[in-house]
């Protein structure tokens, strides 16, 4: 599928097959932005592209961001076929909620690849064009986990912290050349994220206080009108920054205590749970309209 309105701005959204990324793609389409929808579940992306077609054209890019070697050629093809990218929103991601010794180094490496190195690779591809045209916006979706280091998130927190540092550094280096950089820190958002390894027992409790994907997506896309380096959603979560400055040890102790699972209610990991096995698309979950993620670590 190709674009027909080449005069429209071009956005690339990773994680567009569900949750925040899909909602972001919807918001962009309302603005008439052409969007490249990136994720692994091609059928989901196609469905979304069909839904958005009355608003704006989009194309599907099937890509596993854990596959380091696949990203550069995919981005090269994209730029050749569709021209320079105006907006890159990196929303793809997943978490693993396990103690450090229950995650293998390669699991942590994979988290770093999807959240951080994939962003590095994609930004490397699109930034030269943005700098040349003195125009562009790169938005990375982070997490409060980067700042507070909660229990069970050794890989996830580090990956998000790296993404935050990358965003800040890029803003320092290229922010005066017409390119905007933003790091978004959402609170708990109602998405399939909590179907991931280790989270299931928390999901219903967390979702009670969760923000909707649409609300978060509106705030993210609003950055295009009023660019800023950091966006915290909801706003009151910024209090964590102040508390960390004033009482760092108290904040650390509180987070460590409160994020530790209640072992009396925690479901044990399935006996064959292997976090770094390849993420498998389960046929049972590939039906349209399913709210479940289609591929999770088996
Ligand atoms: N939900 C929350 O409470 C929350 C809070 C703070 C931050 N965040 C962050 O927000 C972002 C979006 O999460 P979400 O809540 O929207 O979760 P989600 O509904 O599970 O969506 C995750 C998206 O990432 C994609 N993805 C995962 N692994 C991928 C890979 N290897 N290659 C390509 N795409 C991949 C998934 O697509 P495929 O499975 O089709 O590949 C899916 O589109 C993530 O970075 C997450 O860390 C979420």
Approximately how much helix is present in the residues?
40-55%
Please state the overall shape, judged from the principal axes of the Cα atoms.
Answer: globular
Any idea what the radius of gyration is? 19 Å
Count of DSSP helices?
Answer: 10
- The beta-strand count equals 9
Instruction: Say which molecules are bound, naming each kind only once.
Output: NADP nicotinamide-adenine-dinucleotide phosphate
| Uncertain stretches | 270-298
Q: What's the end-to-end separation, in Å?
A: 32 Å
Biggest pleated-sheet summary = 7 strands, parallel
- The CATH superfamily name is NAD(P)-binding Rossmann-like Domain
Please state the average pLDDT score. Answer: 87
The overall number of domains is: 1
Under CATH at level 1, the class stands as Alpha Beta
Helix and strand string, N-terminal first?
A: EHEHEHEHEHHEHHEHHEE
CATH architectural arrangement? 3-Layer(aba) Sandwich
Which secondary-structure class do the elements indicate? alpha/beta
**Spatial ordering of strands, largest sheet:** 3-2-1-4-5-6-7
């Amino acid at each position: 599928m190709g674009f027909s309105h080449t005069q429209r701005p071009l956005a690339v959204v990773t994680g567009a097959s569900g949750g925040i990324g899909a909602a972001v793609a919807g918001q962009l389409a309302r603005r008439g932005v052409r969007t490249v929808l990136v994720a692994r579940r091609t059928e989901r992306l196609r469905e979304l592209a069909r839904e958005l077609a009355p608003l704006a054209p989009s194309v599907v890019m099937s890509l596993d961001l854990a596959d380091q070697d696949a990203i550069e050629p995919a981005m090269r093809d994209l730029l050749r076929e569709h021209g320079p990218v105006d907006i890159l929103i990196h929303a793809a991601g997943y978490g693993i909620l396990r103690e450090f010794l229950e995650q293998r180094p390669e699991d942590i490496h994979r988290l770093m690849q999807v959240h951080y190195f994939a962003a590095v690779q994609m930004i490397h591809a699109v930034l030269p064009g943005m700098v040349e045209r003195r125009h562009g916006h790169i938005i990375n979706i982070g997490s409060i986990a980067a700042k507070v280091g909660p229990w069970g998130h050794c890989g996830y927190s580090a990956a998000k912290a790296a993404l935050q540092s990358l965003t800040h550094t890029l803003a320092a280096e290229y922010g005066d050349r017409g390119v905007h950089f933003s790091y978004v820190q959402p609170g708990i958002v109602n998405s399939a994220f909590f179907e991931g390894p280790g989270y299931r027992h928390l999901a219903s409790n967390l979702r009670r206080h969760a923000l909707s994907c649409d609300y978060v997506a509106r705030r993210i896309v609003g950055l295009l009108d009023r660019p800023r380096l950091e966006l915290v959603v909801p706003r009151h979560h910024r209090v964590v920054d102040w508390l960390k400055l004033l009482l760092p040890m108290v904040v650390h102790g509180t987070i460590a205590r409160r994020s530790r699972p209640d072992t009396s209610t925690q479901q044990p990991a399935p006996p064959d749970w292997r976090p770094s096995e390849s993420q498998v698309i389960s046929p049972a979950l590939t039906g349209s309209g399913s709210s479940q993620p289609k591929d999770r670590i088996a």
